[in-house]
Design a protein that fits this description.
The protein has about 425 residues and is of the alpha+beta class. It has helices spanning about 5-10, 10-15, 25-35, 45-60, 65-80, 85-90, 115-125, 140, 145-150, 180-185, 330-335, 390-405, 415-419; strands at about 170-180, 185-195, 215, 225-230, 230-235, 245, 260-270, 280, 300-305, 310, 320-325, 335-340, 345-350, 360, 375-385. β12 and β13 (about 345-350) form a beta hairpin.
């Protein structure tokens, strides 16, 4: 999430709650919208998918009390400065920057006659008003304001923080697991070819045997302060590029970055009941961050190999399914069948007079969750019609047909069709 998002987006509106809503109200609103807008419930609906992403992004901020406080403080700051609302008063900011000579409030002077154009012109790298007033680098000027947001933001868009530190990129991988492991859960080892901490310099970026020194300009803070009248701003230190350290003798393997390409062995914990195509997130297992910033995350997409007999219910993923062939006498007279499960087999009683296609439920033979809840096994009865009959069987069937010739299962079919 970029710094601009914290100013322009109204996360409360995205979730349909007020800015004074409690955390429980926010969570309840998110869960309701997530169920309605989830891609599985709206296949092929691009608008629902976009809305689902916006709702998830909003909950990622205001659903966290710490981030919500930072977000509220930022919005209050810009609302009080007269520059917030409507994408900075329609002054052109959402399109990729301030209009030349314009101000964040969309007018010439901003709130109370304060000239934001002069402020941004002076703060833009020390340039005077004649050197592009009103077109200063917005991210440099507001870097200190968004310091905490830059550090806590996730995803590949987190970018560079206010001190030049950069969160590591997220990494994606894929694994294929058998149906049994998807139902029960498993720990799966994987090998990942991606940038990781340089083993030669242990991530310091400095040649082995040497250590980086503290930047004398910023005393290791990575930031230098600049005052502009009543305002004080912080910006990344140019000497150390905001890292707070200076590497005099770079590591020959990573060239001072502290990161190099390597193969890593990881163990992915697959939760019980994972669906085919679902992603498992491993926090902090992506690319390492630069300058002390946190590492990115690893997202592992799971492909589940189908089972020969068993399946998963489309209505409830915790329920397993199986189709069992049965004979006509078993349906008509009733029977006790032996049906397979993931843990052996169970006996199932078929009531007399059951119809082909009827589904019976075996309790507690589905997916078992960590909370102790278990799904069920849904057994669908399917009439097996023999392709050939011997003489005795055919004679018996003819006798049955003769005995039941007065019973017409289609007696009401034509009459009901005319209504």
């Amino acid at each position: 999430m970029t710094q601009r998002d914290w100013i322009e987006k109204d996360f409360y509106r995205d979730l349909g709650v007020s800015s004074t809503a409690s955390q429980d109200e926010i969570k309840k609103a998110y869960r309701k919208l997530a169920r309605e807008l989830h891609p599985d419930a709206n296949p092929g609906d691009a608008k629902a998918e976009a809305r689902f992403k916006a709702v998830s992004e909003a909950y990622g901020v205001i659903g966290d009390e710490k981030k919500r406080k930072e977000y509220d403080e930022t919005r209050a700051m810009f609302s009080g400065a007269g520059g917030f609302g409507g994408g900075f008063g329609g002054g052109g900011f959402p399109g990729g920057g301030f209009p030349r000579g314009g101000t964040p409030g969309g007018g010439a002077g901003g709130a109370g006659g304060f000239d934001f154009g002069d402020l941004f012109g002076q703060a833009g790298g020390g340039r005077g008003a004649g050197a592009g007033a009103g077109t200063g680098d917005f991210s440099d000027i507001l870097g200190d304001i968004f310091a905490r947001a830059g550090r806590s933001g996730g995803g590949a868009n987190a970018g560079y923080g206010p001190t030049g530190a950069r969160r590591g990129q997220d990494v994606e991988s894929r694994i294929t697991i058998p149906f049994e492991d998807a139902v029960r859960g498993a720990s799966v080892p994987i090998k990942l070819n991606s940038p990781g901490r340089c083993e030669r310099c242990a991530g310091t970026g400095s040649r082995p045997g040497t250590t980086p020194r503290t930047c004398p300009t910023c005393d290791g803070a990575g930031l230098v302060n600049r005052s502009q009248g009543a305002f004080s701003f912080s910006e990344p230190c140019r000497d150390c590029r905001g890292t707070g350290r200076i590497v005099d003798d770079p590591c020959p393997q990573c060239h001072g970055e502290g990161v190099s390409d390597r193969t890593r062995s990881l163990t992915v914990r697959i939760p019980a009941g994972v669906d085919d195509g679902q992603k498992v997130r491993l926090s902090g297992q992506g690319e390492p961050g630069r300058g002390g910033a946190p590492a990115g995350d690893l997202y592992v997409t799971v492909t589940v190999t189908p089972h020969r007999v068993l399946g998963r219910s489309s209505k409830n993923g915790d329920d397993l399914t199986v189709t069992v062939p049965v004979t006509f006498p078993e349906l008509a007279l009733g029977a006790t069948l032996t049906v397979p499960t993931l843990d052996g087999s169970v006996s199932l009683k078929v009531p007399a007079g059951s119809a082909s296609g009827r589904t019976l439920r075996v309790r507690g033979r589905g997916v078992e969750r960590k909370n102790g809840k278990k799904g069920d096994l849904l057994v669908t009865l399917e009439l097996a019609v023999p392709q050939k009959l011997d003489a005795a069987a055919e004679e018996a069937l003819q006798a049955y047909a003769e005995a039941t010739k007065d019973v017409d299962p289609r007696a009401d079919l034509l009459g009901n069709a005319r209504r």
